[in-house]
Amino acid sequence: MANPAIDRRFSVAPMLDWTDRHCRYFLRLISRHALLYTEMVTTGAIIYGKGDYMAFSQEEHPLALQLGGSNSVDMARCAEMAQARGYDEVNINVGCPSDRVKNGSFGACLMAQPNVVADCIRAMQAVVDIPVTVKCRIGIDDMDEYSDFARFIDTVANAGCDTFIVHARKAWLQGLSPKENREVPPLNYPRVHQLKGEHPELSISINGGVKTLEQAKEQLAVVDGVMMGREVYANPYLLSNIDSELFGDHRCVPTRRELVVQMQAYIEQQTDEWFKPWHVARHMLGLFQGQAGGRIWRRYLSQQGTGKNPDPNLLMNALEQVEAAQSEIEEYHAAKQAQEVSQISHKQ
């Protein structure tokens, strides 16, 4: 069942080639409440593609489908399909700066065409009851004044959109790669804060540069929601404190070991003939980030999870290696502590 009420205080960003259904299933085990987004899916892929680009597990709710497109008829058709499939939200991508997105007349280039986005909002809202939202930048190229940003927001909001997720960087559509566009343009949080101050009636979430729970809390004092992307992917167990700290849900969060056991079972349940354990394991490389054995975990998954004959018991065998390393470290520290106590006793 879809979740009828979406709490937007914390969400995980849509990340192309990263936030697929396996990644989202894994992240949902850690947080019940974080709003998850699909990778961007183009309307052309959904309407004309041979694969099922909208598949997801029911456990993933609350879940939003991010659409790439600018044809209002196609966008409405895909929104209707998304609602029928059970998605909780449909989000329009107005932030991705890659060439293939730009050439398809969607993504960040649409910030220069607010009326096109507004037409999509009207068409989509006419056929669905679930929220239709927009993820955008604070500007593009030379359209970098607050007035340009405000004009885009006003035009789209007047069409009926009341929820915006804003990446607090401008996008350079010429001269910077997508990776550089995530890092080179400076962050401008005050611009997003100003937008919220001038539009208290809108739901405004901020994206870009937020790496810790404390930073998220600081932003939530000003805006309605925080979206994190690469930091969650690199260190997924960061989500373990989100439910209690931001949503007041103090349930027992699975340990890293419990997550490994659950995801190994998930791997064994897959029936797709093209499925490989690496399709899941690649999203879990950061599970032991900052922990003893983290490098061993990453190395084992990378070496034994790929190739022609991947380890079918990949996650559990990797865990065994991590726990063996952790035991050695604990024994070493225990022995060292005992030695220090003995030396103190002799001196006395």
TrEMBL record:
Its cofactor is FMN. One of its GO terms (molecular function) is tRNA-dihydrouridine20 synthase activity. The keyword Flavoprotein applies. SUPFAM superfamilies: FMN-linked oxidoreductases. Its EC number is 1.3.1.91. The active site is at C96. Keywords: Flavoprotein, FMN, NADP, Oxidoreductase, RNA-binding, tRNA processing, tRNA-binding. Catalyzes the synthesis of 5,6-dihydrouridine (D), a modified base found in the D-loop of most tRNAs, via the reduction of the C5-C6 double bond in target uridines. Specifically modifies U20 and U20a in tRNAs. This is tRNA-dihydrouridine(20/20a) synthase. It comes from Alteromonas pelagimontana.
